[in-house]
Amino acid sequence: MSKEIILSGIRPTGRLHIGNYLGALKNFVKLQNEYECYFFIADFHSLNEPFDPKNKYQQIINLTKDYLAAGLDPKKCTIFAQSQVPEHSELAIILSNVVPVSFLFRMTQYKDKSADRAAENVNSGLLFYPVLMAADILMYHPTRIPVGKDQTQHVELARDVARFFNGKFGPTFIEPQPLYTDSPNIMSIIAPEKKMAKSLGDNHCIYLDDEPETIKQKLAKAVTDTGDGKSLGAKNLLDLVKIFSQPSTHKKFIADQAAGNLKYSELKQTLAQDIADYFAEFRKRKKQISQKDAEKILAAGSKKAQKVAEKTMSAVRTRIGIR
Question: Which pLDDT tens digit goes with each residue over 159-173?
Fold first, then answer.
């Protein structure tokens, strides 16, 4: 019996932090053992925000190394770069002709990212982003798309696009369902009212490849309170202890919180060591992966993905009458 197909990707916009790992990459590693998986580097999707062309290729390579160091196995899943499979762009152009523009303007991501910019500074790539994502998804005929419960809108649009295309040109695409995965909200250690994000600055994030001393220094600056454990900063640190430390350690600090005498210096030192230990093997493996290794994996995965994409596009071209 063949496995169900799933697909997901991460944008190469810089180093991955623990929120990226817990929200996506950790789940990828588990899912590769249960499904036929396509995990891609969403490099085209990373172009709709400011970037330095000199750094972009290394970001792609670095993310590939992260995939491999975290435990993704090219023998169990297909790892590829979006830009190395040109069929993605072709399908996006075709699908753009069946998507009402009103559907794009109502997307939360467009609203959020365009809210702080003058209209003339909002590039059309940001608006078009969901169409390209629908193309990414539908290309491989997945039945499920792994997402957090607050991230279903893009899957819903992909389903809409599949339905619009099928209704106009005949049955072609599967309407994928969301596969809800564990996706905890990891907050900034400096501004705990905000989600951890690279855009906030390096001091707000703990990166997967941060060295132990760097993790210790960052957590030393984490926002807390006087010891009653009631602040957002305290909650954030205790949530991280629950994830990365032993249950007994978490139980101890929760008891201290209840007693109103939480010692943050002890908590931060313990948490720093536990996070460093958690990612020790990741750091070791990543240092062992060369750029040539990463490029070889991407080339092989992209070649494998393109075989599926070519078959899909052949059917699409026939459906719309251009071949």
Answer: 999 999 999 999 999
Spot the catalytic one: 195, 235, 242, 286. 195
Q: Which residue out of 56, 76, 113, 304 is catalytically annotated?
A: 113
Let me know if 195 is a catalytic residue: yes
Reply yes or no on whether the pLDDT at 1 is more than 70.
no
User: Does residue 198 carry a catalytic annotation?
Assistant: yes
* Residue 152, burial from CB neighbour count under 10 angstroms (0-12, 13-18, 19+): middle
222, 212 in Cβ contact below 8 A? no
The answer to whether residue 85 scores a pLDDT higher than 70 is: yes
Catalytic residue, candidates 26, 56, 76, 198: 198
Distances (CA, A) of 300 to 43, 87, 181, 220: 17, 16, 28, 43
What is the Cα–Cα distance from 321 to 323, expressed in whole angstroms?
6
Cβ proximity of 4 and 141 under 8 Å = no
Q: Does the pLDDT of residue 121 top 80, yes or no? A: no
Extract the tokens encoding 85: 């499979």
- Whether 26 is a known active-site residue: answer no
Top CATH class of 5-185+291-320 equals: alpha beta
- Per the listing, tokens 């010891």 go with 227
pLDDT at residue 107, rounded to an integer: 87
Residue ranges per structural domain of the chain: 5-185+291-320, 211-278
For the stretch 29-73, pLDDT in tens is: 999 999 999 999 999 999 988 899 999 999 999 999 999 999 999
